[in-house]
Amino acid sequence: MTTLNSINTDVLIIGAGPTGLTLANLLGQAGVDTLIIDRKPGTVTEPRAVSIDDESLRTMQAIGLHQAVLRDVVPGYGVHYFTRPGGRCFGKVEPTGKLYGFPKRNAFRQPLLEGTLKAGLERFASLTARFNHVLLEFSQDHQGVRALIRDAEGQILEVNAAYLVACDGGRSTVRKQLGIEMVGSSFSSRWLVVDTDRDDDPFWQTRVYCDARRPVVEVPGPHHTRRFEFLLKPDETDEQVLSETRLRELLRPFRGNAPVSIVRKTVYTFHARVAERWRVDRVFLAGDAAHLTPPYAGQGMNSGVRDAHNLGWKLIGVLKGKMAESALRSYESERRDHAWALIKLALNLGMVMAPATVLRARLISTAFALVGLLPPLRDYFLQMRFKPKPRFTKGLVLTEGEAGKLSCGQMFPQPMLTDSHGHEHLLDEAIGAGFALIQYGDPTRQRLDELQHGLWSHLDAKRILILPEHVKSMPSIPGCTVLQDRAGLLKGMLGDSSKFLLLRPDRYVAAIFDKAGETSAAESLQALLGIVSARNHATEHHASLSLTP
Question: How far apart, in whole angstroms, are the C-alpha atoms of residue 535 and residue 542?
Protein backbone atom coordinates (compact mmCIF):
# COMPACT_ATOMS: atom_id res chain seq x y z
CA MET A 1 0.00 0.00 0.00
CA THR A 2 1.53 3.31 -1.11
CA THR A 3 0.96 6.49 0.86
CA LEU A 4 0.59 9.42 -1.54
CA ASN A 5 -0.15 12.28 0.82
CA SER A 6 0.36 13.08 4.48
CA ILE A 7 -1.49 15.45 6.82
CA ASN A 8 -0.62 16.54 10.34
CA THR A 9 -3.45 17.70 12.58
CA ASP A 10 -4.36 17.98 16.25
CA VAL A 11 -7.61 15.97 16.16
CA LEU A 12 -8.91 13.45 13.64
CA ILE A 13 -12.67 12.82 13.85
CA ILE A 14 -14.10 9.72 12.20
CA GLY A 15 -17.78 10.18 11.38
CA ALA A 16 -19.68 13.33 10.39
CA GLY A 17 -23.00 12.72 12.11
CA PRO A 18 -24.43 15.04 14.79
CA THR A 19 -21.78 14.04 17.36
CA GLY A 20 -18.79 14.40 15.05
CA LEU A 21 -20.03 17.63 13.47
CA THR A 22 -20.75 19.19 16.87
CA LEU A 23 -17.28 18.26 18.12
CA ALA A 24 -15.68 19.63 14.95
CA ASN A 25 -17.49 22.96 15.36
CA LEU A 26 -16.33 23.21 18.98
CA LEU A 27 -12.72 22.51 18.03
CA GLY A 28 -12.84 24.80 15.00
CA GLN A 29 -14.22 27.62 17.10
CA ALA A 30 -11.16 27.32 19.37
CA GLY A 31 -8.74 27.30 16.43
CA VAL A 32 -7.73 23.66 16.95
CA ASP A 33 -6.44 21.98 13.79
CA THR A 34 -9.06 19.34 13.01
CA LEU A 35 -9.81 16.91 10.20
CA ILE A 36 -13.25 15.25 10.09
CA ILE A 37 -13.95 12.47 7.59
CA ASP A 38 -16.96 10.36 6.68
CA ARG A 39 -17.42 7.44 4.32
CA LYS A 40 -20.70 8.89 2.99
CA PRO A 41 -20.72 11.39 0.09
CA GLY A 42 -22.31 13.99 2.37
CA THR A 43 -24.48 14.40 5.43
CA VAL A 44 -27.55 12.18 5.75
CA THR A 45 -30.50 12.81 3.48
CA GLU A 46 -33.06 10.59 5.22
CA PRO A 47 -34.77 11.38 8.57
CA ARG A 48 -33.27 9.62 11.57
CA ALA A 49 -33.31 11.28 15.00
CA VAL A 50 -36.35 13.54 15.51
CA SER A 51 -36.03 15.01 19.04
CA ILE A 52 -33.54 17.59 20.29
CA ASP A 53 -33.59 18.72 23.93
CA ASP A 54 -32.69 21.90 25.80
CA GLU A 55 -29.19 20.72 26.69
CA SER A 56 -28.35 20.03 23.04
CA LEU A 57 -29.76 23.40 21.96
CA ARG A 58 -27.52 24.99 24.59
CA THR A 59 -24.58 23.25 22.93
CA MET A 60 -25.76 24.58 19.56
CA GLN A 61 -25.71 28.01 21.20
CA ALA A 62 -22.14 27.36 22.40
CA ILE A 63 -20.99 26.84 18.81
CA GLY A 64 -22.93 29.85 17.55
CA LEU A 65 -25.51 27.92 15.53
CA HIS A 66 -28.62 27.87 17.71
CA GLN A 67 -30.48 30.49 15.68
CA ALA A 68 -29.86 28.59 12.44
CA VAL A 69 -30.85 25.30 14.08
CA LEU A 70 -34.03 26.75 15.58
CA ARG A 71 -35.28 27.74 12.11
CA ASP A 72 -35.84 24.02 11.51
CA VAL A 73 -37.26 23.11 14.92
CA VAL A 74 -40.76 22.75 16.35
CA PRO A 75 -40.12 24.10 19.87
CA GLY A 76 -41.64 22.90 23.11
CA TYR A 77 -43.73 19.91 22.11
CA GLY A 78 -44.93 17.27 24.57
CA VAL A 79 -46.49 13.81 24.57
CA HIS A 80 -50.14 12.78 24.76
CA TYR A 81 -50.87 9.14 25.65
CA PHE A 82 -53.94 7.45 24.13
CA THR A 83 -55.53 4.08 24.80
CA ARG A 84 -55.69 3.36 21.03
CA PRO A 85 -56.13 5.22 17.72
CA GLY A 86 -59.34 7.20 18.14
CA GLY A 87 -59.42 6.34 21.86
CA ARG A 88 -59.24 8.54 24.92
CA CYS A 89 -56.21 10.52 26.06
CA PHE A 90 -55.27 9.25 29.52
CA GLY A 91 -52.04 11.18 30.16
CA LYS A 92 -50.05 14.21 29.06
CA VAL A 93 -46.44 15.34 29.39
CA GLU A 94 -46.15 19.03 28.43
CA PRO A 95 -42.97 20.63 29.82
CA THR A 96 -43.06 24.43 29.82
CA GLY A 97 -39.90 25.45 31.69
CA LYS A 98 -36.72 26.80 30.10
CA LEU A 99 -34.21 26.12 32.86
CA TYR A 100 -31.32 25.98 30.40
CA GLY A 101 -32.59 28.71 28.10
CA PHE A 102 -34.57 26.58 25.65
CA PRO A 103 -37.70 24.38 25.69
CA LYS A 104 -37.05 20.94 27.13
CA ARG A 105 -38.32 18.94 24.17
CA ASN A 106 -38.26 19.94 20.51
CA ALA A 107 -38.88 18.29 17.15
CA PHE A 108 -36.35 18.50 14.33
CA ARG A 109 -35.15 16.62 11.26
CA GLN A 110 -31.63 15.20 11.28
CA PRO A 111 -30.79 16.04 7.64
CA LEU A 112 -31.53 19.72 8.31
CA LEU A 113 -29.52 19.74 11.54
CA GLU A 114 -26.54 18.03 9.94
CA GLY A 115 -26.69 20.45 7.01
CA THR A 116 -26.55 23.39 9.42
CA LEU A 117 -23.65 21.85 11.37
CA LYS A 118 -21.75 21.08 8.16
CA ALA A 119 -22.22 24.64 6.92
CA GLY A 120 -20.91 25.84 10.29
CA LEU A 121 -17.59 24.14 9.62
CA GLU A 122 -16.89 26.59 6.81
CA ARG A 123 -16.39 29.36 9.37
CA PHE A 124 -13.07 27.95 10.57
CA ALA A 125 -9.78 27.92 8.69
CA SER A 126 -8.33 25.35 11.10
CA LEU A 127 -10.96 22.77 10.17
CA THR A 128 -11.11 20.44 7.15
CA ALA A 129 -14.04 18.16 6.27
CA ARG A 130 -13.67 15.34 3.75
CA PHE A 131 -16.49 13.04 2.66
CA ASN A 132 -16.14 9.83 0.64
CA HIS A 133 -13.14 9.06 2.84
CA VAL A 134 -12.82 5.67 4.58
CA LEU A 135 -10.64 4.84 7.57
CA LEU A 136 -8.62 1.73 6.74
CA GLU A 137 -6.49 1.29 9.84
CA PHE A 138 -4.76 3.21 12.57
CA SER A 139 -2.02 2.81 15.16
CA GLN A 140 -0.90 4.92 18.08
CA ASP A 141 2.01 5.51 20.44
CA HIS A 142 2.77 8.00 23.21
CA GLN A 143 3.27 10.79 20.66
CA GLY A 144 0.10 10.47 18.59
CA VAL A 145 -2.11 8.50 16.23
CA ARG A 146 -1.29 7.46 12.66
CA ALA A 147 -4.27 6.67 10.41
CA LEU A 148 -4.48 5.47 6.83
CA ILE A 149 -7.51 6.75 4.92
CA ARG A 150 -8.75 5.99 1.41
CA ASP A 151 -10.47 8.72 -0.62
CA ALA A 152 -13.10 8.37 -3.35
CA GLU A 153 -10.41 7.90 -6.05
CA GLY A 154 -8.75 5.10 -4.10
CA GLN A 155 -5.74 7.16 -3.09
CA ILE A 156 -4.30 6.63 0.38
CA LEU A 157 -3.89 9.49 2.80
CA GLU A 158 -1.73 9.27 5.93
CA VAL A 159 -2.98 11.36 8.82
CA ASN A 160 -0.90 12.04 11.92
CA ALA A 161 -2.95 13.42 14.81
CA ALA A 162 -2.51 14.03 18.50
CA TYR A 163 -5.93 12.44 19.15
CA LEU A 164 -8.55 10.43 17.27
CA VAL A 165 -12.25 10.57 18.16
CA ALA A 166 -14.53 7.85 16.80
CA CYS A 167 -18.01 9.19 16.07
CA ASP A 168 -18.64 6.49 13.49
CA GLY A 169 -21.89 5.05 14.79
CA GLY A 170 -23.17 1.83 16.33
CA ARG A 171 -21.10 -0.34 13.97
CA SER A 172 -17.97 1.72 14.73
CA THR A 173 -14.94 0.58 12.76
CA VAL A 174 -12.66 2.20 15.31
CA ARG A 175 -14.30 0.42 18.24
CA LYS A 176 -13.97 -2.91 16.46
CA GLN A 177 -10.30 -2.30 15.64
CA LEU A 178 -9.72 -1.54 19.32
CA GLY A 179 -11.45 -4.80 20.28
CA ILE A 180 -13.95 -3.03 22.58
CA GLU A 181 -17.19 -4.90 23.22
CA MET A 182 -20.66 -3.41 23.67
CA VAL A 183 -22.42 -4.62 26.81
CA GLY A 184 -26.18 -4.61 27.28
CA SER A 185 -29.03 -6.14 25.32
CA SER A 186 -30.89 -5.92 22.04
CA PHE A 187 -34.65 -5.88 21.87
CA SER A 188 -36.46 -8.76 20.25
CA SER A 189 -39.13 -6.32 19.10
CA ARG A 190 -38.93 -4.66 15.69
CA TRP A 191 -40.42 -1.33 14.68
CA LEU A 192 -41.56 -0.01 11.33
CA VAL A 193 -40.67 3.66 10.89
CA VAL A 194 -42.52 5.73 8.28
CA ASP A 195 -41.56 9.37 7.66
CA THR A 196 -43.93 11.61 5.75
CA ASP A 197 -43.98 15.17 4.45
CA ARG A 198 -46.71 17.54 3.19
CA ASP A 199 -48.57 16.77 6.40
CA ASP A 200 -51.62 18.95 7.14
CA ASP A 201 -52.30 17.82 10.75
CA PRO A 202 -51.97 20.98 12.94
CA PHE A 203 -51.49 18.98 16.18
CA TRP A 204 -47.89 19.61 17.33
CA GLN A 205 -47.67 17.15 20.25
CA THR A 206 -46.43 13.59 20.02
CA ARG A 207 -49.21 11.03 20.17
CA VAL A 208 -48.46 7.65 21.74
CA TYR A 209 -51.06 4.93 21.29
CA CYS A 210 -50.50 2.43 24.14
CA ASP A 211 -52.49 -0.30 22.44
CA ALA A 212 -51.17 -3.78 23.23
CA ARG A 213 -52.54 -5.00 19.89
CA ARG A 214 -50.33 -2.54 17.99
CA PRO A 215 -48.42 0.19 19.88
CA VAL A 216 -47.89 3.26 17.68
CA VAL A 217 -45.92 6.48 18.13
CA GLU A 218 -46.70 9.56 16.04
CA VAL A 219 -44.17 12.42 16.12
CA PRO A 220 -44.69 15.85 14.47
CA GLY A 221 -41.77 17.53 12.76
CA PRO A 222 -40.84 20.89 11.23
CA HIS A 223 -41.98 22.00 7.76
CA HIS A 224 -45.11 19.78 7.70
CA THR A 225 -43.31 16.48 8.36
CA ARG A 226 -44.47 13.65 10.60
CA ARG A 227 -43.15 10.25 11.73
CA PHE A 228 -45.14 7.10 12.48
CA GLU A 229 -43.60 4.17 14.38
CA PHE A 230 -45.43 0.82 14.47
CA LEU A 231 -44.46 -2.13 16.69
CA LEU A 232 -44.30 -5.21 14.48
CA LYS A 233 -45.55 -8.67 15.35
CA PRO A 234 -43.17 -11.65 15.31
CA ASP A 235 -44.79 -13.21 12.23
CA GLU A 236 -44.67 -10.00 10.15
CA THR A 237 -41.79 -9.85 7.68
CA ASP A 238 -40.01 -6.71 6.54
CA GLU A 239 -41.17 -7.28 2.99
CA GLN A 240 -44.82 -7.49 4.07
CA VAL A 241 -44.95 -4.32 6.16
CA LEU A 242 -42.89 -2.27 3.69
CA SER A 243 -45.25 -3.00 0.81
CA GLU A 244 -47.34 -0.09 -0.46
CA THR A 245 -50.60 -1.86 0.34
CA ARG A 246 -49.67 -2.69 3.93
CA LEU A 247 -48.32 0.79 4.60
CA ARG A 248 -51.64 2.32 3.53
CA GLU A 249 -53.52 -0.07 5.82
CA LEU A 250 -51.35 0.82 8.80
CA LEU A 251 -51.66 4.57 8.19
CA ARG A 252 -55.42 4.57 7.54
CA PRO A 253 -56.50 4.89 11.24
CA PHE A 254 -54.47 8.11 11.43
CA ARG A 255 -54.79 9.60 7.94
CA GLY A 256 -58.03 8.08 6.72
CA ASN A 257 -58.13 7.91 2.93
CA ALA A 258 -56.21 11.17 2.53
CA PRO A 259 -53.12 10.93 0.32
CA VAL A 260 -49.86 10.40 2.23
CA SER A 261 -46.41 11.43 0.98
CA ILE A 262 -43.91 8.89 2.29
CA VAL A 263 -40.26 9.96 2.22
CA ARG A 264 -38.75 7.05 4.15
CA LYS A 265 -39.77 3.61 5.36
CA THR A 266 -37.56 1.19 7.27
CA VAL A 267 -37.59 -1.54 9.91
CA TYR A 268 -35.13 -1.55 12.78
CA THR A 269 -34.42 -3.24 16.11
CA PHE A 270 -33.65 -1.21 19.22
CA HIS A 271 -30.50 -1.60 21.29
CA ALA A 272 -29.54 -0.71 24.86
CA ARG A 273 -25.77 -1.03 25.01
CA VAL A 274 -22.70 0.76 26.31
CA ALA A 275 -19.09 0.27 25.25
CA GLU A 276 -16.92 -1.43 27.86
CA ARG A 277 -14.34 1.33 27.44
CA TRP A 278 -14.65 4.78 25.93
CA ARG A 279 -10.95 5.48 25.60
CA VAL A 280 -7.77 3.65 24.68
CA ASP A 281 -4.82 6.02 25.17
CA ARG A 282 -5.22 8.68 22.45
CA VAL A 283 -8.39 7.27 20.87
CA PHE A 284 -11.89 8.12 22.19
CA LEU A 285 -15.37 6.81 21.43
CA ALA A 286 -18.36 9.17 21.30
CA GLY A 287 -22.01 9.06 20.30
CA ASP A 288 -23.42 5.75 19.07
CA ALA A 289 -19.90 4.32 18.97
CA ALA A 290 -19.94 4.54 22.79
CA HIS A 291 -23.63 3.91 23.61
CA LEU A 292 -26.84 2.82 21.89
CA THR A 293 -30.08 4.17 23.34
CA PRO A 294 -33.65 3.03 22.56
CA PRO A 295 -35.63 5.92 21.04
CA TYR A 296 -38.47 6.00 23.59
CA ALA A 297 -36.94 8.95 25.49
CA GLY A 298 -35.59 10.73 22.41
CA GLN A 299 -32.11 10.85 23.96
CA GLY A 300 -29.85 8.87 21.62
CA MET A 301 -28.58 11.78 19.54
CA ASN A 302 -28.73 14.14 22.52
CA SER A 303 -26.40 11.87 24.50
CA GLY A 304 -23.94 12.07 21.60
CA VAL A 305 -24.07 15.87 21.62
CA ARG A 306 -23.33 15.78 25.36
CA ASP A 307 -20.31 13.57 24.63
CA ALA A 308 -19.06 16.07 22.05
CA HIS A 309 -19.32 19.05 24.40
CA ASN A 310 -17.78 17.21 27.34
CA LEU A 311 -14.82 15.88 25.37
CA GLY A 312 -14.46 18.96 23.16
CA TRP A 313 -13.65 21.56 25.81
CA LYS A 314 -11.21 19.17 27.47
CA LEU A 315 -9.33 18.50 24.23
CA ILE A 316 -9.18 22.25 23.66
CA GLY A 317 -7.83 22.81 27.17
CA VAL A 318 -5.12 20.18 26.75
CA LEU A 319 -4.10 21.24 23.24
CA LYS A 320 -4.00 24.91 24.26
CA GLY A 321 -1.87 24.14 27.30
CA LYS A 322 -4.52 25.13 29.83
CA MET A 323 -4.55 21.74 31.53
CA ALA A 324 -2.70 18.44 31.51
CA GLU A 325 -3.51 15.39 29.43
CA SER A 326 -4.55 13.61 32.63
CA ALA A 327 -7.72 15.75 32.61
CA LEU A 328 -8.97 13.68 29.66
CA ARG A 329 -9.45 10.71 31.98
CA SER A 330 -12.59 12.43 33.25
CA TYR A 331 -14.44 12.07 29.92
CA GLU A 332 -15.69 8.53 30.45
CA SER A 333 -16.12 8.87 34.22
CA GLU A 334 -18.39 11.91 33.73
CA ARG A 335 -20.38 10.72 30.74
CA ARG A 336 -20.82 6.97 31.13
CA ASP A 337 -23.17 6.91 34.16
CA HIS A 338 -25.48 9.57 32.75
CA ALA A 339 -25.64 7.90 29.34
CA TRP A 340 -26.64 4.64 31.03
CA ALA A 341 -29.22 6.44 33.20
CA LEU A 342 -30.90 7.73 30.04
CA ILE A 343 -30.82 4.27 28.49
CA LYS A 344 -32.66 2.94 31.56
CA LEU A 345 -35.16 5.82 31.29
CA ALA A 346 -35.82 4.85 27.68
CA LEU A 347 -36.35 1.22 28.66
CA ASN A 348 -38.87 2.22 31.34
CA LEU A 349 -40.73 4.54 28.97
CA GLY A 350 -40.79 1.71 26.46
CA MET A 351 -42.83 -0.35 28.92
CA VAL A 352 -45.41 2.48 28.95
CA MET A 353 -45.42 3.15 25.22
CA ALA A 354 -45.50 -0.49 24.17
CA PRO A 355 -47.39 -2.53 26.82
CA ALA A 356 -46.98 -6.25 26.28
CA THR A 357 -50.56 -7.16 27.22
CA VAL A 358 -54.01 -5.59 27.27
CA LEU A 359 -54.03 -5.90 31.07
CA ARG A 360 -50.77 -3.99 31.38
CA ALA A 361 -52.12 -1.28 29.05
CA ARG A 362 -55.19 -0.87 31.30
CA LEU A 363 -53.02 -0.72 34.42
CA ILE A 364 -50.86 2.00 32.85
CA SER A 365 -53.84 4.16 31.87
CA THR A 366 -55.32 3.74 35.37
CA ALA A 367 -52.01 4.73 36.97
CA PHE A 368 -51.86 7.88 34.84
CA ALA A 369 -55.40 8.79 35.88
CA LEU A 370 -54.47 8.47 39.55
CA VAL A 371 -51.31 10.52 39.05
CA GLY A 372 -53.44 13.30 37.56
CA LEU A 373 -55.31 13.59 40.86
CA LEU A 374 -52.11 14.34 42.80
CA PRO A 375 -50.63 17.73 41.85
CA PRO A 376 -47.01 16.98 42.93
CA LEU A 377 -46.93 13.73 40.95
CA ARG A 378 -48.84 15.28 38.05
CA ASP A 379 -46.32 18.12 37.77
CA TYR A 380 -43.43 15.65 38.13
CA PHE A 381 -44.55 13.98 34.91
CA LEU A 382 -46.01 17.05 33.21
CA GLN A 383 -42.72 18.98 33.47
CA MET A 384 -40.50 15.97 32.66
CA ARG A 385 -38.78 16.03 36.03
CA PHE A 386 -38.35 12.26 35.67
CA LYS A 387 -35.60 12.85 33.11
CA PRO A 388 -32.24 12.20 34.84
CA LYS A 389 -30.16 15.36 35.03
CA PRO A 390 -26.42 14.89 34.77
CA ARG A 391 -24.71 15.40 38.11
CA PHE A 392 -20.98 14.79 38.22
CA THR A 393 -19.68 13.45 41.53
CA LYS A 394 -16.28 12.62 40.03
CA GLY A 395 -14.20 14.09 37.27
CA LEU A 396 -13.24 17.74 36.86
CA VAL A 397 -15.47 19.07 39.65
CA LEU A 398 -14.96 19.55 43.36
CA THR A 399 -16.94 17.09 45.44
CA GLU A 400 -18.08 19.67 47.99
CA GLY A 401 -19.72 23.07 47.70
CA GLU A 402 -23.28 24.35 47.61
CA ALA A 403 -25.06 27.60 46.80
CA GLY A 404 -28.67 27.34 47.83
CA LYS A 405 -30.05 24.24 46.10
CA LEU A 406 -27.24 24.10 43.54
CA SER A 407 -24.26 21.78 44.07
CA CYS A 408 -20.94 21.24 42.37
CA GLY A 409 -21.25 18.98 39.34
CA GLN A 410 -24.66 20.27 38.23
CA MET A 411 -25.38 22.24 35.08
CA PHE A 412 -25.91 25.92 35.82
CA PRO A 413 -29.25 27.40 34.69
CA GLN A 414 -29.38 29.86 31.81
CA PRO A 415 -31.69 32.77 32.65
CA MET A 416 -32.51 35.70 30.43
CA LEU A 417 -30.58 38.61 31.98
CA THR A 418 -30.76 42.39 31.58
CA ASP A 419 -27.73 44.67 31.23
CA SER A 420 -27.38 48.29 32.38
CA HIS A 421 -28.81 49.52 29.07
CA GLY A 422 -31.97 47.46 29.45
CA HIS A 423 -30.96 44.93 26.79
CA GLU A 424 -31.72 41.27 27.42
CA HIS A 425 -29.21 38.45 26.94
CA LEU A 426 -29.16 34.76 27.71
CA LEU A 427 -26.40 34.08 30.23
CA ASP A 428 -24.18 32.08 27.87
CA GLU A 429 -24.08 34.97 25.42
CA ALA A 430 -22.39 37.02 28.13
CA ILE A 431 -19.99 34.22 29.06
CA GLY A 432 -18.70 33.31 25.62
CA ALA A 433 -16.88 30.06 24.91
CA GLY A 434 -14.76 29.54 28.03
CA PHE A 435 -14.80 29.42 31.81
CA ALA A 436 -16.75 31.89 33.95
CA LEU A 437 -16.73 33.06 37.56
CA ILE A 438 -20.34 33.74 38.55
CA GLN A 439 -21.68 35.54 41.61
CA TYR A 440 -25.38 35.88 42.34
CA GLY A 441 -26.67 38.09 45.14
CA ASP A 442 -25.33 40.94 47.28
CA PRO A 443 -21.86 42.08 46.07
CA THR A 444 -21.25 44.07 49.27
CA ARG A 445 -20.58 40.86 51.21
CA GLN A 446 -17.73 39.81 48.92
CA ARG A 447 -16.77 40.96 45.44
CA LEU A 448 -15.68 39.17 42.30
CA ASP A 449 -12.84 41.62 41.71
CA GLU A 450 -11.32 40.59 45.06
CA LEU A 451 -10.48 37.11 43.71
CA GLN A 452 -6.75 37.15 43.06
CA HIS A 453 -5.60 33.56 42.55
CA GLY A 454 -3.61 33.03 39.36
CA LEU A 455 -5.83 30.15 38.27
CA TRP A 456 -8.64 32.44 37.20
CA SER A 457 -6.38 34.35 34.80
CA HIS A 458 -4.83 31.11 33.54
CA LEU A 459 -8.30 29.83 32.61
CA ASP A 460 -9.32 33.20 31.13
CA ALA A 461 -12.42 33.00 33.30
CA LYS A 462 -14.92 35.78 32.58
CA ARG A 463 -16.34 37.40 35.74
CA ILE A 464 -20.10 37.95 35.82
CA LEU A 465 -22.14 39.42 38.67
CA ILE A 466 -25.86 38.60 38.51
CA LEU A 467 -28.09 40.82 40.62
CA PRO A 468 -31.47 39.69 42.03
CA GLU A 469 -34.64 41.28 40.66
CA HIS A 470 -35.20 43.58 43.65
CA VAL A 471 -31.92 45.53 43.24
CA LYS A 472 -32.63 49.09 42.05
CA SER A 473 -29.22 50.14 40.72
CA MET A 474 -26.45 48.25 38.95
CA PRO A 475 -22.96 48.89 40.38
CA SER A 476 -19.84 49.11 38.28
CA ILE A 477 -17.22 46.52 39.31
CA PRO A 478 -13.79 46.56 37.63
CA GLY A 479 -13.24 43.61 35.29
CA CYS A 480 -16.79 42.30 35.74
CA THR A 481 -19.91 42.14 33.61
CA VAL A 482 -22.94 43.13 35.68
CA LEU A 483 -26.37 41.75 34.75
CA GLN A 484 -29.74 41.40 36.47
CA ASP A 485 -32.10 38.45 36.76
CA ARG A 486 -35.34 40.42 36.57
CA ALA A 487 -37.43 37.28 36.06
CA GLY A 488 -36.11 35.80 39.30
CA LEU A 489 -35.17 32.41 37.82
CA LEU A 490 -32.09 32.04 40.03
CA LYS A 491 -33.63 33.19 43.32
CA GLY A 492 -35.36 29.94 44.18
CA MET A 493 -32.28 27.92 43.31
CA LEU A 494 -29.42 30.01 44.68
CA GLY A 495 -31.09 32.04 47.42
CA ASP A 496 -28.83 34.94 48.41
CA SER A 497 -25.60 33.18 49.30
CA SER A 498 -23.44 35.52 47.18
CA LYS A 499 -20.95 32.68 46.77
CA PHE A 500 -18.61 32.38 43.82
CA LEU A 501 -19.18 29.63 41.25
CA LEU A 502 -16.69 28.52 38.61
CA LEU A 503 -18.51 27.37 35.47
CA ARG A 504 -16.73 25.10 33.00
CA PRO A 505 -17.04 25.75 29.25
CA ASP A 506 -19.85 23.15 29.14
CA ARG A 507 -21.70 25.16 31.85
CA TYR A 508 -21.30 22.62 34.64
CA VAL A 509 -20.35 24.00 38.05
CA ALA A 510 -16.76 23.01 38.82
CA ALA A 511 -16.47 24.79 42.18
CA ILE A 512 -18.52 26.77 44.71
CA PHE A 513 -16.63 28.78 47.33
CA ASP A 514 -16.44 32.05 49.25
CA LYS A 515 -13.55 34.50 49.57
CA ALA A 516 -12.08 32.69 52.56
CA GLY A 517 -12.04 29.41 50.64
CA GLU A 518 -10.60 30.80 47.39
CA THR A 519 -7.08 29.44 47.79
CA SER A 520 -8.26 25.99 48.85
CA ALA A 521 -10.72 25.75 45.95
CA ALA A 522 -8.17 26.98 43.41
CA GLU A 523 -5.50 24.56 44.58
CA SER A 524 -7.94 21.64 44.46
CA LEU A 525 -8.96 22.62 40.93
CA GLN A 526 -5.32 22.89 39.88
CA ALA A 527 -4.78 19.33 41.04
CA LEU A 528 -7.82 18.12 39.08
CA LEU A 529 -6.78 19.96 35.92
CA GLY A 530 -3.15 18.96 36.34
CA ILE A 531 -1.96 22.45 35.51
CA VAL A 532 0.74 22.68 38.17
CA SER A 533 2.95 20.96 35.65
CA ALA A 534 0.89 20.70 32.49
CA ARG A 535 2.24 19.58 29.15
CA ASN A 536 1.44 21.91 26.29
CA HIS A 537 0.65 19.78 23.24
CA ALA A 538 0.03 22.85 21.11
CA THR A 539 3.79 23.49 20.87
CA GLU A 540 6.77 21.33 19.98
CA HIS A 541 8.32 21.63 23.42
CA HIS A 542 6.98 20.82 26.88
CA ALA A 543 6.31 23.78 29.12
CA SER A 544 5.89 23.61 32.87
CA LEU A 545 3.06 25.81 34.15
CA SER A 546 3.24 26.78 37.77
CA LEU A 547 0.39 28.75 39.26
CA THR A 548 0.52 30.36 42.67
CA PRO A 549 -1.92 32.58 44.55
Answer: 5
